[in-house]
Amino acid sequence: MTIAVYPGSFDPVTNGHIDIATRAARLFNKLVIGIYDTPDKRILFSTEERVELTRRAVAHIPNVEVTSFTSLTVDFAKEMGAKVLVRGLRMVTDFEREFEMSLMNKKLYPDLELVCLMTGLQYQFLSSSLLKEVAGLGGDVQNLVPEFVASALKEKLGSES
Ligand code: ADP
After folding, report:
1. Does residue 53 line the site of ligand 1, with CB under 6 A?
2. Ligand 1, atom nearest to 128 Cα
């Protein structure tokens, strides 16, 4: 049984994340989406909210689980019994960052293999940070996130101002 982990901030989950999770779930017996509890960036949704939204977004995929984690990604992978780390690649800058992190992860946990899936064409420019910026300025986020994520964004950004 091959278990893979797919870590990230998921602040909030987007259709780009869902696409990667759907495709990765076809490749492995089990995919565990790991939500970084304290990412190194400004976060809009609490950890509980990010877990809840992501769970709803992938509820239709039977072999996907969602949980939060606070440790190093490699320790989270070990804890889950995973031998594969899944990440999505959008552009060259993603590649450079992934390359750098994967070399460090390899040193920390040599048995863990990185599998990068290329973004779907329609999600190439979709990131949670850009999404929050657009939604914050009242832009239309239809087709970029599930309906309930769009509502959660509206509520959160409305209550922030
Ligand atoms: P972001 O970089 O959007 O803040 P995360 O930290 O939540 O996102 O990203 C988790 C993983 O999902 C990363 O590997 C990231 O490259 C990938 N990812 C995010 N958005 C997309 C997308 N639109 N297409 C493909 N992969 C994506």
Report:
1. no
2. 3
**Token output for 57:** 């977004």
Average pLDDT in the 9-14 region? 97
Which whole number is the average pLDDT over 19-35?
98
Arithmetic mean of pLDDT over the chain: 94
Distance between CA atoms of 37 and 7, rounded to whole angstroms?
11
Percent over 70 (pLDDT), the chain: 98
**Domain boundary assignment for the chain:** 3-121
60 is catalytic: no
The answer to whether 90 is a known catalytic residue is yes
Residue 7 to residues 67, 86, 138, 140, 147: CA-CA distances in angstroms? Answer: 10, 7, 29, 27, 23
Q: Is the pLDDT of residue 161 over 60?
A: no
CATH topology of domain 3-121: Rossmann fold (3.40.50)
Q: Which residue owns the Cα nearest ligand 1 atom 4?
A: 128
Instruction: Please state the atom number of ligand 1 nearest to the C-alpha of residue 130.
Output: 3
